[in-house]
Amino acid sequence: MLMEEFVRHSGIAAPILRGNVDTDAIIPSREMKRVSKLGLGEGLFAGWRYLTQETRNPDPQFVLNQDAYRGASILLSGPNFGCGSSREHAVWALKEFGIRAIIAPGFGSIFANNCVRNGVLALEMGDAEIKRIADWVALDAQRNRVLIDLPAQVVEAADVSFPFSVDPGAKRMLVEGLDAIALTQTRWQQISAFHEQRKQLRPWLY
Amino acid sequence: MGLSLFEKLWQEHRVERQDDATDLIYIDRVFLHERTGSIALSSLQADGRDVFYPQQVFCCMDHIVDTYPERSDETTMPSGKDFIVATRSHTRAAGITLFDLDDPRQGIVHVVSPEQGIVQPGMTLVCPDSHTCTQGALGALAWGIGSSEAEHALATKTLRVKKPRTMRVHFDGSLALGVSAKDMILHLIATHGANGGSGYAVEFTGQAVSELDMEARMTLCNMAVEFSAFTGLIAPDEKTVAFLQGRPYAPVGEAWQQAADYWRQLVSDADSIYDCELRVDCTSLEPQVTWGTSPQHATGISGAVPAPGDVDTLERAGREKALAYMDLQVGEPIAGKMLDAAFIGSCTNSRISDLRLAASVLKGRKVAPGLRAICVPGSMLVKAQAEAEGLDKVFIEAGFEWRASGCSMCFFAGGEHFGFQQRVISTTNRNFESRQGPETRTHLASPVMVAASAVRGCITDPREFL
Ligand code: SF4
Questions:
Q1: Which residue has the least CA distance to atom 1 on ligand 1?
Q2: Does the structure show a pLDDT above 70 at B452?
Q3: Which H or E run contains A170?
Q4: How far, in Å, is the centroid of ligand 1 from the Cα of B347?
Q5: Taking residues B286-308, what's their average pLDDT?
Q6: Strand order, beta sheet including B231-233
Q7: Selected residue with higher pLDDT from A114 and B413
Q8: Which residues is A123 bridged to in the sheet?
Q9: What residue owns the CA closest to ligand 1's atom 2?
Q10: Which among B235, B182, B224 has a CA at the least distance from the CA of B199?
Q11: Rounded to whole angstroms, what are the CA distances from A143 to A10, A17, A67, A150?
Q12: Which residue, A137, B56, B60, B351, could crosslink B215 as a Cys pair with Cβ 3.0–4.6 Å?
């Protein structure tokens, strides 16, 4: 199964400028109704997006419901985005909704890994830069689009290039759209040799 | 320079270094549960991939199952049955050991694994569940992963992992009466932030940690993920070895000797260097309770709700939202806040020692009128043990509901919940918005504080009952 590649992406950025946006908030547990990775976009941020959960009456206060940010594909947020539960549904929901990248000062580590596995970019950047980008976007979000160039490792916004660093392994997986399992299976000889060796070394485990 | 325990375990499991700072790490055991495991297994099957070594894969039914005494595959969670049925058929097809609903060993994955002796010192263990770090209490390298990574571990018995940095948190001194591992970890997170451990594998050391029994160590490691750590870890000692002896999956005979000798060597070298070291003095630590919607929003029981204050701006926004959500005023004392419900359960605090402590407070007392109180043992074996000791009667006579095992109302999955904007004191690990029900307001605390608060009907210092 090949992943969608992430190379260069230009899009509308929506701000959710608070810290510790947890995966329960991104996709509430009650929205995970099927044994499937699909059908989760509707439930994205359900607790914040809808005034009434049953009838799904949109809350006009919530950024993703506002015309200005219609079609957003990038999120701007605070520290520790995606902390909490390991549910990969959070990434599946973001992706189905159309989010390709999240820019935040830091991420929950399981969430960051889940992003890589699904072709979503979790991009780390300082608080001040994020605020600056958000302020510029807020002037006219539909026109002031944010460009992310992953190979060059820069974000372009407000006539400024903001450099960012990224783990080289994650970058390669994203840019080339690699399937981690297929990649690892090319190391099969090494793995099975290790496995046999370990049976000798720690026999009580087998 | 010596090696830390984490470094030793990492090296022992490294199959090879990838070109890019990432290592290919061998995984000894995988745990699954019906919530995320069902999806990992069905996706693996859809891609035509097999589970490489199913003898080392285990699965629990815990997240979606009901905890009513008479339960079946039908659950209060919408479409919950689909997950249960799918998990049963996928695990059977793959040859994976399943602790099913009717199994006397059924329970919450991070309770069942140590209880059965499946997690052991020195091994790597992963599970698509963030609280897998609980099992680091036994000196294993255990961490939570996503579903795709679970597929990777199942298919290849390895994971590609970026090596975390190392941190040591040294807990000095002894705990006072009424103060527990839950208070240690809440205090640590409150002091250093919910992302204080981000990017680190954290080893817990010090007198207060050595003095904890094994179950309390699990409580401590359980919330390493709420500190955003890669995992939490405690070096095995004689308590660890004694804990494992005679457990169903522990080695026996000569293999036991061999294993125990190896486990005893698993300590950090005296001259090992960590990327970060923190110290916490436990002598003056008081019982902790959270006031907000992140585990870092915790205070001592004699404290008050803090002002959003001069923390950085994004942080401040979060605190302001938390105060509004929790319906609390800046400066109001946290003790005395009126409650609607009390919950004892979850992989943090639902083991037999937790139930004994709570029961010691509840014995001969009643929960406050109108307060809903629920106790959910962490496994059916914990429940049976509690019943053998007569603890069930203590809970029931005090006015608690006495349930079968599962995650239950630790998280709201669309089924049973505490109710709109209800204020709950809970032994769980997450006080996130709507975690326990629609806009439910959760205060995290230890089992003794939850029991004491249930009796008074408001947030209460447990030391008044000891
Ligand atoms: S008890 Fe709660 S935290 Fe623990 S595994 Fe279950 S849902 Fe997760």
A1: B346
A2: yes
A3: helix A168-176
A4: 6
A5: 96
A6: B231-233, B200-205, B165-172, B276-281
A7: A114
A8: A103
A9: B410
A10: B224
A11: 11, 20, 13, 21
A12: B351
Q: Residue B129: CB within 6 Å of ligand 1?
A: yes
| Residue B418 predicted with pLDDT over 90 | yes
What CATH architecture does domain A8-205 belong to?
Alpha-Beta Barrel (3.20)
User: What pLDDT does B49 receive?
Assistant: 95
The answer to whether the CB of B186 falls within 8 A of the CB of B151 is: no
CB distance B226 to ligand 1 below 6 Å: no
Chain center to CA of B342: 18
Residue B343 has pLDDT above 80, yes or no: yes
Q: Is B265 on the interface with A (CB under 8 A)?
A: no
Helix (H, G, I), strand (E, B) or coil at B67: coil
Q: Which of B312-316, B360-364, B381-385 has the lowest mean pLDDT?
A: B312-316
A-chain CB neighbours of B78 within 8 Å are 30, 33
Query: In sequence order, what are the beta bridge partners of B201?
Result: B166, B231
Is any atom of ligand 1 closer than 6 Å to the C-beta of B429? yes
Q: Which residues pair with A161 in a beta bridge?
A: A156
Confidence of residue B312 (pLDDT cuts 50, 70, 90): low
> Could you tell me the two tokens for B372?
């809903």
Is the predicted pLDDT of residue A1 greater than 60, yes or no?
no
pLDDT at B413: 86
Tell me if B141 sits within 8 A of B164, measured CB to CB. Answer: no
Nearest CA, atom 6, ligand 1: B407
pLDDT at B77: 87
Domain locations along chain A: 8-205
3-state DSSP assignment of residue B294? coil
Read off the pTM: 0.95
The interface predicted TM-score of the complex, written ipTM, equals: 0.93
Instruction: Name which CATH class applies to B1-286.
Output: alpha beta
Please judge whether A127 and B149 are an interchain contact, meaning their C-beta atoms are less than 8 angstroms apart.
Answer: no
Q: Given pLDDT bands bounded at 50, 70 and 90, which one contains residue B70?
A: confident
Question: Which residues, listed in sequence order, are joined to residue A75 by a DSSP beta bridge?
Answer: A14, A102
Nearest residue on chain B to A193, alpha-carbon basis: B15
Please give the Cα distance from B268 to B438 (Å, whole number). 45
Q: Say yes or no: CB of residue B180 within 6 Å of ligand 1.
A: no
CA gap B143, A110 in Å, rounded: 9
CATH class of the domain whose range is B292-465? alpha beta
- How many contacts does A have with B, using Cβ atoms within 8 A? 195
The atom number, within ligand 1, closest to the CA of B378 reads 1
The pLDDT confidence band at residue B313, using thresholds 50, 70 and 90, is: low
What pLDDT band is residue A180 in, cutting at 50, 70 and 90? Answer: very high
Tell me, yes or no, if B55 comes closer than 8 A to chain A by beta carbon: yes
User: Is residue B311 over pLDDT 70?
Assistant: no
Amino acid at B112: V
Please tell me which residue of chain B has the smallest CA distance to A17: B314
